[in-house]
Amino acid sequence: MRIKRLYQITRTFLHYGLNELIPAKWMPWSVRFARCTLFWIRNKHTDLPPGVRLRLALESLGPVWIKFGQMLSTRRDLLPPDIALELAKLQDKVKPFSGERAQQLIEASLGLTSIHDAFDEFSVTPLASASIAQVHTARLKSDDNDGADVVIKVIRPDIRKAIDADLRLMETLAAVLAKHLPDGRRLKPREVVREYQKTLLDELDLAREAANAIQLRRNFEDSPLLYIPEVYSDYSRHNVMVMERIDGIPVSDIDTLMAMGVDMKKLAERGVEVFFTQVFRDSFFHADMHPGNIFVSRKNPKEPQYLGIDFGIVGTLNREDKRYLAENFLAFFNRDYRKVAELHVDSGWVPAHINVEDFESAIRTVCEPIFNKPLADISFGHVLVNLFNTARRFEMEVQPQLVLLQKTLLYVEGLGRTLYPQLDLWQTAKPFLERWMKEQLGWRAVVRSVREQAPYWAEKMPEMPSLLYDYLQTHKHQVTRQELAAQAMLQVQSTLAWRLWWGLASAGGLISTTLLWVTDQNHWLTLTGAIVTVTSIMMSWRKPAQTR
């Protein structure tokens, strides 16, 4: 099954001529030879532009590859503009499945005889179609929720089979890479694939997505930065989710945003702030922030607000990772490369035997040239290549729990590049991180901790006298028991010392008596030695006097 899928992927790539997009000098001889052996598979789309061929190939391979194309579409510094624009269509313009089939799935999931049992209106034509699901517009019945306009998200039918096939193939390839690549242990391909597998399978459960949306909506309630639509939980199931319909401008529609007079600089800065707020304040972040999932409110162009959808992929960070990340970011923004190197060693991301001075110098070499530059002037493709080479040189291990965060940061950087290329990413994020660190480490952290614990201590305060009395009583009994135990220990030690002393005396007497007997000494002297020896043996078995 895996070999069949691998052949299908290879055939698709060659069928759309994707091998022609890679310069021949970059392809090892083994790959060129393998291409020659598949001579019967020809490029059947020579008339299409490269971007269209790449999009169609990824689209035909299914959701795993479509997700990969979505991520690539945000990195216009790594791809030619025409290819990036074409891949952007994968964000919400994937070929839909039948609207009638979607209606049947909704009716079956909600237990409806007819779609109109719950909705006054339902559009069979999908509003948008993505890799995992598609969306239809509807209106709830007038007697329920005041006839609110909603959208219904429906998981594609039979999608699990295609995903499972690709994930099994990825597991096989990861095992091969881990075994044969020199960097296999450091890059942790198996762990990364497992993390991606968990993320992708979670995205197939719309009940989980609904819970994620409710959590994010609570985190940003009444926030001017981000609005999360309301989820109607009564109409949501594992493969169907109903939520409030929003009216916004796609964040990728720059012409419309400019025409409406949106403050693009503030919009880009707020995107960075939304990201860092989710990561460091909430430890719960939207991890699929590609342009197809982000809109801008029409209400106040001078104070732009983001509208977010599609919450199937979210990320979390534990306290330790969050702390190390914040300290790394701050040290990086302050150009304290020594601190960055030490933090990597302290966190275990880099082995302890690595020379910190050499690691510091390597980080400085990569990062120093990009400071004080707007995003438009930074070649992140070049920076990424250098960072990967540095990580390999210093045996830095991939952290699977940070893969989602790294992907989201790429989305945010790509979004900032699109909205406002002059954005100073460092100066925008630095004040937020400095404020967060002060709240975590300074007097504010102490005050907050006391305030958070106050209800608990207020509840326990009436019990304190009895708890104190119980403690003192217990302590008193423990002291008595410890004294008795100490006396018993002294008695044991005294007994052992007594028996050791008389045992040595017995051994000495026995040896002396034996020598007197063998050498035919005076019988009275020999008898006296024997009496002393017997007496010593008897004394060694007596118990010593009790010590107090």
TrEMBL record:
InterPro entries, alphabetized: ABC1_dom, Kinase-like_dom_sf, UbiB, UbiB_bact, UbiB_kinase
Name under which the protein is recorded: Probable protein kinase UbiB
Homology family: Belongs to the protein kinase superfamily. ADCK protein kinase family. Belongs to the ABC1 family. UbiB subfamily.
GO terms (BP aspect): regulation of ubiquinone biosynthetic process; ubiquinone biosynthetic process
Keywords: ATP-binding, Cell inner membrane, Cell membrane, Kinase, Membrane, Nucleotide-binding, Transferase, Transmembrane, Transmembrane helix, Ubiquinone, Ubiquinone biosynthesis
Domain of life: Bacteria
Matching SUPFAM superfamilies: Protein kinase-like (PK-like)
Family matches, as NCBIfam families: PRK04750.1, UbiB
Biological or metabolic pathway of the protein: Cofactor biosynthesis; ubiquinone biosynthesis [regulation]
Organism from which the protein derives: Pseudidiomarina insulisalsae
CDD domains: UbiB
EC number: 2.7.-.-
Annotated TM spans: none
Gene that encodes it: ubiB
Keyword Transmembrane set for record: yes
Keyword Isomerase: no
Residues binding ATP: 127-135, 153
Residue ranges of domain ABC1 atypical kinase-like in the record: 89-344
